[in-house]
Structures are given as C-alpha cells and as structure tokens.
# Entry
Amino acid sequence: MEVHHHSHHPKKWKEYLTEFLMLFLAVSMGFIAENLREKHIEDERSEELMHAFISDVKENQKQLDSLIINNQRLSHYYDSMSFDNGFGKRQVDLLKLADNLDLKMYRFINKKTIFEQMKSSGALRYIQDKEILKSMIRYEENADYAEIRSMDNETDHYNNKFRNTIDEILPLSFYKYISDSNLKKMTKMDSIVNPRRYENNKIYGAEIKKDLENTKFTKEQINRIAKAWHFRRERLVFGLRYQIQLNQQGKELLTLIEKKYSH
# Structure
C-alpha cells in the first residue's frame, strides 16, 4: 500500500509576526476593556459618594444657619446685660432675668460620616478634580476645628467659669421660678420629668416670686455677674467667627461640587 505524506511548509516570519500582533492586540484590548470597566465603576462610585458628601455638607449648613442665629441673639443679649448691670442699673431685676435668661448651649457637631468613609476606604483617590479634593480637605479641617471650639473650649468655659460664677450669686428662687406663660408651654415630657411642677408652683409660686423681688445684690456681686455676661459673650463671639467662616466656606464648596456633580 502506498502511503502519502502531507508536506508541511515552514511558516514565514510574517505569519509569526501577524499571529503575535493579533494575540498582543487581543490581550491589550482585554486589558483596556478591563481598565475602562474599572474606571466606569470608580466614576460611578465617586459620584455616588460625592452626592452623599453633599448631603452631609448641607446638613452642616442647616445646623450652622440655626447656630449662628441663636449665638448672635445670645451675644447681643449678654452684651446688653453686661452694660446694663455693669454701668447702668445698679441692681439686677431678678424676676425679669428669670423670665428672659437663656442658659442653653448651642453647639456645632460636624457631620462627616461620608468623608471619613471616603478617607478610610481610599475612595478620595476617585476624585480626579484636585481643586474639589483640596477644598473638601480644607473644609473638613475647618469643620473639625469649629466643632472643637464649640464642644470643648466653649463647653469648658460655660461649665467651669460661667455657670460657677452665676450659680454662686443667683438665689435658689431664680432656678425654681417659672412664669405662667412658661407653665402653659410645658410638654407631656416635662410633666413626666417634673411630675410635681404644677403642684409645687401652686404651693410655693408666690413665695418664690416674692424672694426674687426682695433679693438685692451687693456692688461686688453685680460687678461679678456683669463680668460673667461679658466673658460669656466674648466666648460666643470667638466661636461665631469660625461658624460664620465655615458657613461661607460650605456655600462655596457646594457651588464648586454641584457644578460638576449636578446631573
């Protein structure tokens, strides 16, 4: 039987080159496609995080708007009180003071959940616009400082200086007094927390009011309380500067970010 052998012609170098180029292009295209896919995912994730970050900044802005209004009101009130008690009326109207004095503290707490998440996960690298990234970092640094000013420094002065001074001077009747208008504003929660308030006011209200009307301060006490108003205002104004600056910085940051991520 005759056997026929197929002849094998060696490939030309051009064929090898063509196969190599086709293989190289296939691998390269796959690599490029994977990079594009990852870039698309990063862009989507970046936009998602930026919209969440915008929400955090807007929450801070709302908080600052309210905080600035209240602290400006208190600053004006304490300024007037320091002049009235320090240089004007030489006696303190305790009944009026008990009605008007606002002893609340209005403090700023930086909402930075998303920024911390972006920082810890390395997602800040997704932000390609360096101007936006720098503005975000500066904003968070200033927001943290405004929070420290509000939570630590002002709180320390309020508790250890301001309240200590006025609590030594003001009589017990000042803290127990409640006006008829404020009594009517009592909520259900107030009734739960202070269940005997109505009853105690009915029994002792007249005596409390009388004690307030009859209590007189010495010149030294008046000077001390006037200084307490002054230093309370001083701390409020110092904190207000940072709150107003941060509020303005927040507006500028939102304008910058929303211009790019508005869709």
